[in-house]
Model the fold of this input.
Amino acid sequence: MTSTESPKSILKINLEGHPVLHQKIEHTDLTQDLEWDKISDLMHRTMQSANGLGLAANQVSVGIRMFTMWGNKTFINPVITERSDETQLREEGCLSFPNLFLRIPRSQSITVEYHNEKLEKSVDRFEDLWAQCIQHEIEHLDGVLFIDHVSKFKLNRAREKQRKANDTSRR
Done:
């Protein structure tokens, strides 16, 4: 299975193995006549119904360089312009990999240049969990997955925990 749709989902979330997850989404032309706010709203509702912190467009087969983040934040054509030298090592998950959690090193703080759903340009600094989330989502847009950051050994250990968590016969 490569996509899922729960009764509350708005868009189908592509799961591990779906080829679009490894495809880089290039810079999006902001002059396109798109309903940016409606696309953003659909992605936010999908992310929230799946209990996610962030959702990249390619996770729901939308070909726009865009992601949404908890707190009704939308990032179109995001670029990290600055990274702190300090790193953090936190556990993270991904809506495309249900119940798989990995500890990934990320910059502690970042500065991001982006446009929101109203196409207004912003430059903001994010720290801690939000910096981690943004780095994860931008990597999605670049076709890089969080599993690409760990050794095969660590991934296999995490998959054992994932199998147990996904085993409905144990409930």
Residues 5-9 have pLDDT under 50 and may be disordered. The chain has three helices and nine strands. Strands lie at 3-4, 13-14, 54-56, 66-69, 73-83, 87-94, 97-107, 109-115, 121-127.
